[in-house]
Each structure stands twice: as structure tokens, then as C-alpha cells.
Specification:
The chain is of the alpha/beta class. Helix content is 17%, strand content 35%. The chain folds into 2 domains: 2-143, Immunoglobulin-like (Sandwich); 155-344, 3-Layer(aba) Sandwich (Rossmann fold), CATH 3.40.50.150. The protein has 5 helices and 17 strands. The strands form 3 sheets. A 9-stranded mixed beta sheet has the order 1-13-12-11-14-15-17-16-10, sandwiched between helices. Strands 3-9-8-5-6 form a 5-stranded mixed beta sheet, with no helix packed on it. The longest helix has 19 residues, at 165-183. The protein is globular, with a radius of gyration of 22 Å.
């Protein structure tokens, strides 16, 4: 097994309980790291867009106190005139200790009139103050009518009555194998990101490289294949800094992995770099949808509280990712809460 130096990323916090991290909502400072707001939005519409925010202050940030802290906003004209002062409030799903970063589906209502606006994203400490010194302004064009937000060939269907996490992965693996079979040629190389010790691409007629940051799990995988002659290679590496030459893989695979990365756009750019021009990317079994005002599933909340970087993106946000990176979806299926796509670095012929 090969071990590659990992990118320098902050240590994962494990404690998110109010009181364990010191004072609560006393010195609220924050940094808005990124957002998934498009250039244009329809007028007078209530929607959510993900905003990634970090607690840079010295106290816990909480939406569960008598005077909670929320994400909110003002709408202004480009000249700075306030159009909407009282923005919708969005609660944090967990309490944020010092240094913690989280992605939050932020509730936004667009202005009633079309035109050019500035959306000023910030926090508010209810009945105390608007916390505008760390605000970020985003230019948005408000349009009269909503445009098509996802391509027409994307297949959207309700979840199967027999849906399970396991069956969803097996179905996606079958689709991956079908796509691989259509494109198969001798000497293919496949990269699976986040595949741990038993990657879903295992068994393809190719040299399969499984990368993960969990070196202990990869060691188990290596022990399981020693002496077998299987064309499976385990590499401890970070998808934010892939240790491979450009255009070196015919296929890249992610199964329920993309939403765990701090910067999915950076990961997709790295994937495009290592993917051959005639290769393809399979993104499988990613969560799709949103949650409102901090009310997520118990499992989702528990994983956030454990320090896991859980995120969920809408169909529009996945499309936004692909457009930004220059990846072209030849096939997309959204089956309830599971997103699956086959993409390539060149437009379909």
C-alpha cells in the first residue's frame, strides 16, 4: 500500500455540546467561506441555497438559546440602499464550537421586483444586534420568471417503496458496470475516491486504485488481497490533493463521498485534471435535497455532532457544480433522496 502526504486540513472537532466549549453567543465572530448562490434567481420566491460558515470567535454559536444566533441577510441595491432589511432566519442544526465549520441550507426570499441586487449574508443575534462586521455581499440578478434549473434529460422519480441504502448502492454498482462495459478497452485505469477497503469498482476489468484518508482501513484492504493477484491498489491520499498525473485515469468513481468533502468544487476540479478527455466520472448515491431551519434527520444531526462533515445539496446545486467545473452530464437519475450521474470532461457528441 502506498501512503501519500495528506493536504494540510484542520483537525476534525468532536465536541459540539453547548457549555463544553465555553461561553455561548458572547463573542460571535464568523467567516462565510463559500456559497452556492447562482448569478440569477426568480423574483418573490422562497428558496434555500447552501452557505458554508466557520465560527472564528471565542464562544459557542447556538440557535437554541433565549437569544439565538441565526443566519440571515439584507437585500440592497448596487448603490447600497436597503430593499429588504428583515431577512428570513435560518437556525443552525447544531451548536458550533470555536473553529467549527458547517454547511447550512440558508432560507432566502428574493425581492418582489426584478433587477440587480446585492445579497448581504450575515448572522443576527436576536434582540441583540445584526452581526454585520463579518458579512459577505453577493451580486444577484433577480429575474421575472424562473428559468429551467436543471437539464431536461435529468430523470427525477420518487423513491422506490423497497429503498434501502444497501440496495441503492448495489443498483448504482450495476449501472457503473454497464457504463464501464460500454466504454471498455484494454489497459483501463480506474480511480475510486473514498472506497475504503472494499471499493465499489472492485471487480472491473481494469487496474483499480482506491484512495482514502483512513490508513488503517486501507491496511485491512491490502491484507485482504495480498497474494491474490487482484488488480486492486490501495493509496492513502486526500482528494483535495490527488497524487496522480493529469489525464491518467479512464474512469473516476465516487460512491456517497462527494458530500463529505469541505470543498466539492476543488475535488471535482482535481478529478477533471486526472481524468482522460475520453474518460468518464461516475457520481453515485449522493444525498440530494435540503432541510429547513436546522430540522434534519436524527442520524444527520448525530453525525454533525460527531464532527463529520455532513452536507446535502439540491439538484440545482449539483448542476451548479458541474457547470462551474466544466463537466457534462450524459445521464442523471434522482431517485428520491439519491443522486446518481455519469459525467465526462467534453460535451456529448
Amino acid at each position: 500500500m502506498n501512503r501519500i502526504k495528506l493536504a494540510d486540513l484542520p483537525a476534525r472537532p468532536v465536541d459540539n455540546v453547548v457549555g463544553d466549549g465555553g461561553p455561548v453567543n458572547l463573542d460571535v465572530r464568523y467567516r462565510i467561506l463559500s456559497h452556492l448562490l447562482p448569478d440569477a434567481l426568480p423574483r418573490d420566491t422562497l428558496l434555500t441555497r447552501n452557505v458554508r460558515v466557520q465560527n472564528t470567535g471565542t464562544s459557542v454559536i447556538s440557535s437554541r438559546t433565549a437569544n439565538p444566533v441565526y443566519l440571515s441577510y439584507h437585500w440592497r441595491t448596487p448603490a447600497g440602499t436597503v430593499v429588504v432589511f428583515e431577512g428570513e432566519r435560518t437556525a443552525f442544526p447544531i451548536d458550533l464550537p470555536q473553529g467549527r465549520t458547517i454547511t447550512v441550507p440558508t432560507i432566502i426570499r428574493t425581492p418582489p421586483g426584478p433587477g440587480s441586487y446585492m445579497l448581504e449574508l450575515m448572522m443576527i443575534h436576536e434582540q441583540v444586534a445584526w452581526l454585520s462586521r463579518d458579512a459577505v455581499s453577493v451580486g444577484v440578478e433577480i429575474v421575472p420568471e424562473p428559468e429551467r434549473t436543471i437539464p431536461a434529460h435529468w430523470v427525477v422519480s420518487p423513491p422506490s417503496e423497497s429503498y434501502t441504502y444497501e440496495s441503492d448502492h448495489y443498483q448504482a454498482r450495476d449501472w457503473l458496470r454497464e457504463e464501464f462495459g460500454r466504454r471498455h478497452r484494454p489497459g483501463m485505469r480506474v480511480l475510486e475516491i473514498g472506497g475504503c477497503c472494499n471499493p465499489m469498482a472492485r471487480g472491473l476489468d481494469a487496474d483499480v486504485y482506491s484512495i482514502d484518508i483512513d490508513v488503517q482501513t486501507l491496511q485491512i484492504g491490502q491484507l485482504s488481497i495480498d497474494g491474490s493477484g487482484e488488480r486492486l491498489h490501495f493509496v492513502c491520499a486526500d482528494a483535495h490533493a490527488l497524487p496522480f498525473a493529469g489525464r491518467s485515469f479512464d474512469c473516476v468513481v465516487l460512491f456517497s463521498s462527494l458530500h463529505h468533502f469541505a470543498d466539492p468544487l476543488a475535488v471535482l476540479r482535481n478529478i477533471k485534471y486526472v481524468l482522460k478527455n475520453d474518460g468518464f466520472l461516475a457520481i453515485m448515491c449522493e444525498p440530494v435535497g435540503t432541510y429547513l431551519n436546522g430540522h434534519a434527520s436524527r442520524e444527520f444531526i448525530e453525525e454533525l455532532e460527531q464532527g463529520i462533515n455532513e452536507q446535502i445539496f439540491t439538484r440545482e446545486e449539483y448542476h451548479h457544480f458541474f457547470q462551474r467545473v466544466g463537466l457534462y452530464a450524459t445521464w442523471v437519475a434522482v431517485d428520491g433522496g439519491s443522486f446518481k450521474a455519469i459525467l465526462q470532461p467534453r460535451p456529448p457528441a
